[in-house]
Each structure stands twice: as structure tokens, then as C-alpha cells.
Amino acid sequence: MQWNLEQLRQFVATAEHGSISAAARHLGKAQSAVSTALGLLEADLGVVLFDRSKHRATLTDAGQIMLLEARELLRQAQALNQRALALATRNDGKLALALDEVLPRTAIRTLARDIACHFPELELTLLNGTATEVADYVDQERADLGFHFNREPLRERFDERHIGALNQGLFVSEGHDLLQKKQVSRTDLARYRQLVMHSEDIEENVYSPRVWRVDNFHTIAEMVADGLGWAVLPAHIAAYGSHNTPLCQVYCPFLDLPQLSVRMLWCQGSSPGVTAHWVEKRFMALLQQ
């Protein structure tokens, strides 16, 4: 068999984009080149991958099976390449971290001070963003490690490790009517505006017919403090001292709010150095405080 990884990439791209022309545009190749590569791949494998009698590039039964195999081979090839790159360029003198903007600021500030103390010569880069942006920074290799809340499925090329969990709760402003009740029901919540976290097409549960959507937890907390509605917030953000009015937690037994899981991401095959391992352990300890 003479097939190669580039042919597999073009096969996967065609399956994912629905046509040879769309795959060619995505890959920056001529349509004829992609078509030829697919024909050679089918000849080498001895199976027909696409049903060409239809307008779209529809996978045959054999093609669907081979697509799974091709994706796994490409994942392994990427991991091999990352491992080789890490071995060739490993340098503990530099470290880039991507941090979820929702993580506790006190923990991040303490981490930065501790890094400065333990590794005074380290060239450090800190990148902040949403949970999805943190994953993008690692995926683009702009960051060696990413720390974010687990709000989306793990991407195929990543490895992960759970490093902590943070509490969340239902909060209102001081003097809100919901504070008059020892415990509130779903019907009680529906009477008031809900402020919902909505970012990268990921949205929290909605319990009120009156809803505002916001893409930042800190902004939501400020709006809760201004009496604009109630919200489910990470407890450390609700406790943050810059709000005009203190936020108060409401007891609502029907809302079973789990802890927010924090995970560390890195690319498969990469080999974090001594400094990265130290950062992981230190940040894990800070999140538990």
C-alpha cells in the first residue's frame, strides 16, 4: 500500500466539508489535486470511499469506517510530531499559559508572584480569554498549558487533567424580593429576570421567561448588583469586592448546582517541562484554598 498521511488529510477534509471543491478550498489546493489524491487512496486501499452518484461527497459504508481509522491515524501522527518537537526544542526558560478569565483572580495573582519568586529568569507569557479561547491558544500552540472551566467537549488532539473545582450559587442584590423567602421555588424564579451566561454558543439553563444573555460573568455580577435580575454565578465572582451592592446567595433546593470543574489542557505528544509541572501543582493547591 502506497497511501500517505496527506491523502488521509484530504479524505477527512472532503468527508467533513461535504464536497471535493469545499475540501480543496479549505486545504488551499486545486480541486483536481484533491480528486486525484482521493482516487489514488481508494485504489491503494482497495475500497470505494465516496458514492459519486450524488451531488455531495457521501461516504459509503466502507468510507464511514475508514474515516474513523483515518482520524485516529492523523491524531497519532500529530502526537508523534508534537513529541519530537518537544524533545528537539524543550526549553524550560520559557512558558506560555492560557487562563480562563473566570478563574479566581486572587489565585492567578498569587501564582504569578510565586512563579516570579521560584523562577526569576523565566520568560512568562499569560494569555487570557474565554474557555473556548483558552483551548484555541493551546490548539494554535501559542500556549504550552491551558487552564479553564470544563464547558465543552475535549478536542481530539488534547490531553487533560482535572485540577480542581469551584462552587457556584444563585445570587441576587441586597434587598431583592427573593431574599424574603427561606427557600425559593422554580415559580419564584420565573417571576424575575434571569441573567444568563452565553458564550461561544454555550448557554446555561434558563428558568425564567424574562432573560438577558451576557458573555461575561463579571459583567453579569455587576448587573446583579445593580438590581437588574438574578443569576447563577461562580461563588468567587459573586464575592468579588468591587460591586456597588453586595451580592446575596439565595437558597433554591430544586437547583442542584454542581461544582465547576477546572481542567488543564496540553497538546498530545508535548512534554511539559519541570516549570510547567510546578505551575500545575501550585495552581491546583491555590484553587483548593
TrEMBL record:
HTH lysR-type domain mapped to chain residues: 3-60
Keywords: DNA-binding, Transcription, Transcription regulation
Stored Gene3D superfamilies: 3.40.190.290, Winged helix-like DNA-binding domain superfamily/Winged helix DNA-binding domain (1.10.10.10)
Domain of life per record: Bacteria
Keyword rRNA processing applies: no
UniProt-listed InterPro entries: LysR_HTH_N (IPR000847), LysR_subst-bd (IPR005119), WH-like_DNA-bd_sf (IPR036388), WH_DNA-bd_sf (IPR036390)
PROSITE patterns per UniProt: HTH_LYSR (PS50931)
Family indicated by similarity: Belongs to the LysR transcriptional regulatory family.
Full protein name: LysR family transcriptional regulator
